[in-house]
Amino acid sequence: MRLRTLPLSLSGVLLGIMLAASDYRISFAVAVFIVLTTISLQILSNLSNELGDVLHGTDTQERLGPQYGLNGGGMTIKDMKRLIMGAAVACVVFGLIMIKLSFGTLWTLESICLMLLGAAAMLAAVKYTLGRNPYGYRGLGDLFVFIFFGLVSVMGSYFVASHEIPSWLLLLPASSIGFFSIGVLNVNNIRDMKTDAENRVTVAIKLGARKARIYHTILIILGWACMIAYCLLRFFDPWHYLFVLTLPLYIIHVRGMWKLEGRALDRMLPMLVMSTFIFAILAGIGFMAFLFCK
């Protein structure tokens, strides 16, 4: 299930939930099922990604990243398909409960729109590497990660928790998480450039190693710029800048991306995942701080 990536999927929804809690009174039960739905979607994506890469011959013994169930020989394709089906069922069940708890019914316009969005998220999770023409093999992974890990994650969770359509300003923190999430994918793609080159096209392969690292640095800068811009456009409170405490982690990460090669790059992936998770938590706490200071 690639547990080390799960904090990344939680970063956006937790930030969205906490920003909603800073503006409105929210339901704890709804927040719990937002998290459960998100985890299920991430697991569905991870399992489908592994199956797709194995079926396309991308994940082999030469892969520089961790060896998982299929490419490590611990599971069969039939086992993986069963797991994928189980994860899909969990997405549907948790998602419907989340909507019912939040809106009281599945048949309002808001509920139907959320069900359609959930179906799109499930389809995007599966089609990244599965199927005859997976978008992850055409260099479109970065775009879909930005949309679903960034925009949908932050703004969708805000809407479900608060029942209010997010202000355009929320595009900024949503974009921040989106850029960092693309960065996680880019670490993976730079690490696997040699083994991916025969079967798939990624942004890293299109750019080449040096330009892919420049691209990575720009993604990190954009992530920080968006969150700082959001804070500047909101009312001033020094607590809003609590996320700045994570800056040393990002500096170490970017330096590592320029210095390390091959298998050594793998440790930069969980580092960026956890940096983004802590960044999101501190940013959310910063905007909720006034609730604790009353």
Helix-strand layout with pairing:
Blueprint: H1 6-23, H2 28-55, H3 77-103, H4 109-127, H5 141-162, H6 171-191, H7 193-196, H8 203-207, H9 209-233, H10 247-259, H11 268-293
What does this entry look like structurally?
By secondary structure, the protein is an all-alpha fold. The chain has one domain (3-293). Helices cover 71% and strands 0% of the residues. The chain has helices at residues 6-23, 28-55, 77-103, 109-127, 141-162, 171-191, 193-196, 203-207, 209-233, 247-259, 268-293. The longest helix is centred in the first third of the chain and has 28 residues, at 28-55.
Task: Report a brief summary of the structure.
Helix content is 71%, strand content 0%.
The Rg value, from CA coordinates, equals: 19 Å
Integer count of domains: 1
Secondary-structure-derived class: mainly alpha
How much β-strand is present in the residues? Answer: under 5%
Q: List the secondary-structure elements in sequence, H or E.
A: HHHHHHHHHHH
Task: State the end-to-end CA separation.
Answer: 41 Å
How many strands in all?
A: 0
What's the average pLDDT?
91
The low-pLDDT segments are: none
Helix content: over 70%
Overall geometric form: globular
Record keyword descriptors for this entry:
294 residues, mainly alpha, 71% helix
